[in-house]
Amino acid sequence: MELVLDLKKRYTYADYLTWADDKMRELVDGFIRMMAPAPGSIHQEVSGDLFARLYHVIKKNKGNCKIYPAPFDVRLPKNGETEDDQIYTVVQPDICVVCDPSKIDKRGCIGAPDLVVEIQSLSTTRYDLTKKFDLYESSGVREYWVVYPYGVEVFLLQSDGKYDDGTKYDRGKIPVHIFDGCEIDLTDIF
Question: Is 82 in contact with 19 (CB distance < 8 Å)?
Answer without folding.
Answer: no
